[in-house]
Write a structure and sequence with these properties.
The protein is an alpha/beta fold and 423 residues long. It contains 16 helices and 18 strands. It has 2 domains: 155 residues, Rossmann fold; 250 residues, Aldolase class I (TIM Barrel), CATH 3.20.20.70. Bound molecules: 5-bromo-uridine-5'-monophosphate.
């Protein structure tokens, strides 16, 4: 919680825990970081001189509120009111877990910005990804949260209130409504990190790959690899990559582009030196061998909760993935949604919200390279080509300042997404 407070950069003079569960948390933070602690009396004040707020404070002081769980936000608000009655200012609150039932928005309406260490969707998607929670519980929990949102102090049933006019579904909505758990995880990450950016780290050195993933990881929803480009591969690289994926909350996409008969791809996906299925959340396949490729990869990947993208279109000039080939690819994905989570595409191919469209060939400087790659800007990829996720390689990894470039691509891709929602 302290790390989150520090990251927000918010300034305050004292700290007040919402009684009672947050009192020990506030106490520890105050002791460890040397802040005065204020205590709000919860009991009704029945005799005159007793103050509702105990501790050392002056009029105009700014106090940070600490809470363990926020649902409607009413406990935080009550504590803020007691402090404000003493002319203590409250503009920020920190909570360990935001149950995402409207508390954050309700507090914001009262002028209090709520920061959370973790949200309930993050908890659910993480536990599900690690196979610690089955999808039935996740579905029921998501449904409960959706149907029990708070507006002020009144629970609003979303079903009777769903007068949404936007045609494009938001990441948040897709995080709840999509059927594949991995897709829900992906959209949860995208919503939480406000990023529809996948960075493609195509390099020959393991340390370069890991350093770049560590640096750019906080700003992307996916890190894409070509693991067979590494000259010094050992299984430690993929272990470390998984650690970074947990640390920075991104998914790993091994851009293997399987393209052989079922029996062969089964072994290539599960075994060999790279053991791709054991560490890559997502991989992809060419549809050219027919649907046997999907069945074979699914045999390996489905029990592990993995997902596969079908390469339905390509970015390189003169490629043959067009017309009926692309149509066949679209059908193959739609018929195998238990394992296929979407497409690598250059246009919006399916109206099915369960299928993610990821688009490579993206660079702010349009044009191409000398070997046939063709680029469009992140704006065009999202708003004209219908990309849900933009895949950027050299635009970021080849920049003088890869972190600065990643932030620029993240901003460009995300604002194009917000525009598509009509925001
Ligand atoms: P670039 O550096 O942004 O050009 O890298 C693009 C990445 O996406 C690279 O790893 C390609 O292998 C990958 N890619 C692509 O560029 N175009 C395609 O149609 C497909 C994959 Br499929």
């Amino acid at each position: 919680m302290w790390n989150t407070i520090e990251r927000t950069g918010c300034k305050f003079k004292s700290i007040c825990g919402v009684p009672y569960t947050a009192l020990p948390i506030a106490t520890c933070i105050c002791v460890q970081h040397n802040y005065p602690m204020l205590i709000r009396r919860k009991e009704a004040k029945d005799y005159g001189t007793r103050r509702m707020i105990e501790g050392r404070y002056e009029e105009g002081d700014v106090c940070l509120i600490v809470e363990d769980v926020v649902t409607s936000g009413s406990s935080v608000h009550e504590t803020a009111e007691s402090l404000q009655n003493e002319k203590i200012q409250v503009t920020n609150a920190i909570v360990l877990l935001d149950r995402e039932q409207g508390g954050k928005a309700a507090l914001e309406r009262k002028g209090i910005k709520l920061y959370s260490v973790i949200t309930l969707s993050q908890v659910l998607s993480t536990l599900q990804r690690l196979n610690k929670l089955d999808s039935d519980i996740v579905d029921r929990t998501n449904r409960f949260i959706q149907d029990n949102r708070f507006d002020g102090h009144v629970a609003v049933n979303n079903k009777s209130n769903s007068s949404s006019t936007t045609k494009v579904m938001s990441h948040k909505e897709r995080a709840v409504k999509c059927s594949h758990p991995l897709v829900r995880s992906l959209y949860t990450i995208m919503a939480d990190k406000e990023s529809n950016l996948c960075v493609s780290i195509d390099c020959a050195s393991s340390s370069e790959l890991l350093q770049m993933a560590d640096k750019i990881g906080p700003h992307v929803c996916i890190v894409k690899t070509h693991i067979d480009m590494l000259e010094d591969f050992t299984s430690d690289v993929t272990k470390e990559l998984q650690r970074l994926a947990d640390k920075h909350n991104f998914l790993i996409f091994e851009d293997r582009k399987f393209g052989d008969i079922g029996k062969t791809v089964h072994t290539q996906y599960e075994g060999g030196m790279y053991k791709i299925s054991s560490w890559a959340h997502i991989t992809n396949a060419h549809p050219v061998p027919g649907s046997g490729i999907v069945s074979a990869l699914a045999e390996v990947g489905k029990p592990l909760g993995r997902g596969c993208l079908i390469v339905a279109e390509m970015s390189s000039s003169g490629n043959l993935a067009t017309g009926d080939y692309t149509k066949g690819a679209v059908k193959m994905a739609e018929a195998n949604k238990d394992f296929v989570i979407g497409y690598i595409s250059q246009s919006r191919l399916s109206a099915d919200h369960d299928l993610v469209h990821m688009t490579p060939g993206v660079k702010i400087q349009m044009g191409g390279d000398s070997l046939g790659q063709q680029y469009v800007t992140p704006q065009i990829a999202v708003s004209e080509k219908g990309a849900d996720v933009v895949i950027v390689g050299r635009g970021i990894t080849g920049a003088a300042d890869p972190l600065g470039a990643a932030l620029e691509y993240k901003q460009a891709g995300y604002s194009a997404y917000l525009n598509s929602l009509g925001h």
